[in-house]
Amino acid sequence: MKRLARALAVRSKYDCGVGYRVDGMTALALLLRRLAFPCRLKDLLRLFRLKWSVTKVGRVIHAIAGDLARRFGPKVQLSQALFKDADIYAKAIARQLAVKGMRNPPRDLCGFVDGSRIEVCRPMRMQDVLYSGYKKNHNLLYQIIALPNGLIVSANVFPGRYNDAKASFVSELDALVPAGYRLLADSGYGKSRSVLALDRPQRKKKANKHRMQSRSTAAVTRDNNDESVQDQAETDQHGGASSTQETLRLARQRRDRKALSSVRTAVEDVIGQWKEHFKAMYYSKQLRTLGSPNCLACLHPNLVARRFGVPPPPLELYLSA
Hints:
13 helices, 8 strands, elongated, DDE Tnp4 domain-containing protein, HARBI1_dom, metal ion binding, metal-binding
């Protein structure tokens, strides 16, 4: 915690107004506990054994949260400097795709993008903007861009009525992602210069009744004509070869799609860590929109970084970039 305080340049004292001056480490501890789990201010007094008023605790948390938001808020929206090692990320993802069985993995995938919905209280105004017909509740759509080292490049927020495709269009991902690289996404995203979206699995088409009847009629006619039977045998031979090639092609597509889908789950692991360590972010009755799981990923090893073999940067380097 002391290392985090030094990297964040936490002040020695925070002036919270009305004569309240609090030690910086105490203020940081209160803020972290408040974000780690939804709790009442009265519970914080009991946990930290403070003989303060509830008003003072609220002022302290708002003072340090406002200070950190002013200085490090842009990093929550976009940390484009993290793309400087895009070549290393692309090699790590291609290596994992090869391990999963993909013969010719793409060499330009440097990260992942996915959307995560967070339920919020029903607002008094603009309820239709935050209401999602898919989830049947009021929520915010977070568009998460993650890297193979477990860090989050961007966490843009959109109204709940947006879907993934519209959020990617509004956020202009083509301008955010470096030229020559793409992000791996699920089938909800549209394909573009900067996004490689997974193809939806093809469904088997139902047999046409009229087509089946015409085939039966043709079979009866071929039985009465030897020459037609011979021609049909040759056609079936060539058709069988093409059918085998089509089967192999579909099997290869399924294998590649399975490999891409397996690797893409890394962004879901990053979002899962966010949910685990910042539970207050997912408590609809007191939503907090500014928290940085990247600091936690830099301080402690994470699952995604171990999977791809790409360690995150030191905490001080990340905050100073």
